[in-house]
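Many introductory courses stop at the sequence. We go one step further.
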Amino acid sequence: MSAVNSDFSWDNLSWDSLGDERVMVIVLGVAAIVLTGERTTWHVLRNVVTIAHEGGHAVIALLMGRELAGIKLHSDTSGVTLSRGKPRGLGMIFTALAGYPAPAVMGVGLAALIGLDLITVLLWVVVGLLAVLLTQIRNAFGVLTVVVTGGAAVAVMVWGNERTALGFACAVTWLLLIGGLRAVIELQSSRRAQGSGRRGGPPVTSDADQLAWLSHVPGVFWVTVFFLLSLASIVAGGWLMLSWNP
């Protein structure tokens, strides 16, 4: 299966020159924008973004030498990753920093696999990561969410054809990229509504406020970093899916 053609050129871009697979990528990108912008569908789809978010916290916590104590995913699409270690310092800063960039980084990685025509590898990567994450889930809704997400990927591998697999891979990738940006926008909206955290102790309202407390850098700076990284990832991910030459 060829996800992209090597003769693609942005200078000669036209609808007729796109080909069926690139049209699919574009249509699914537009669909992701629409579905993440609608409240009801976003509430469901955001669970996938939350899985990536909490997974990012967990991976970096382990890399920073912290002890992972478990992950919980909630029906309101929020989540929490618990780890043990020093309450302050670089390890905690990087752990807190990892959540919001995680969907964007993972989206770019999946987009690269799509561009390289490694759709089967992509699906196995998704299933493998979810299986590892499942061992750390500590509540029933979290288990259900991870199992359903992984089950969808397995179903595509078992019963789907090549085009179905490509469509599923692109849909998940766009969801992580665009949904990650939507989550950052919601983060800042929530901060404005609730204030910028509490004084005198570690804030509980958001990752940005926790980072502000840990690093003495304003929370809005961290939100800006999340936003710019998410925006750049959308551009990079789209480019990889449309114009990578395997």
